[in-house]
Amino acid sequence: VFLSESGGGLVQAGGSLRIACGTSGGAFPWYAMAWFRQTPGKEREFVAGITTNGEGTWYADTVKGRFTISRDNDKKTVTLQMSDLKSEDTAAYYCNAVSGWHVTTPSFSWWGQGTQVTVSG
Q: What backbone torsions phi and psi does residue 39 show, to the nearest 5 degrees?
């Protein structure tokens, strides 16, 4: 499965941004998916996950209530709507599959190029 993230950018604190993950391969609807993020010198961390049918979502405590994950199985995409952004949300964001409900570790050993989100102010 090929993973490609897009939509990052520079945004002021308190603002919103929507990032997307495009995938390839017919198996996408069978994977639970998740977003992760990483800052220099730190481990990549879980941000949000979504079940195969999109009806179940789970979030890191740091983003709960501010971020919303969604997916479109027809378009093979996963999106992350981010609101009330804070400087500590600054990171490179990546998507990956996860093995199931409430799992916070990635299934694939490979990653896309990521998309940089920078929150100023």
A: -115, 155
At 34, list the tokens: 């998740």
Q: Which long-range contacts (CB under 8 A, 24 or more apart) does 106-114 make?
A: 106/34, 106/36, 107/31, 108/1, 108/3, 110/3, 111/3, 112/2, 112/3, 112/4, 112/5, 112/21, 113/4, 113/5, 114/5, 114/38
Q: Count how many Cα atoms sit within 13 Å of the Cα of residue 74 in the half-sphere of its side chain.
A: 0
Instruction: List the one residue out of 120, 93, 110, 105 whose CA is nearest residue 8.
Output: 93
Convert the pLDDT of each residue in 5-33 to its tens digit. 999 999 999 999 999 999 987 788 899 99
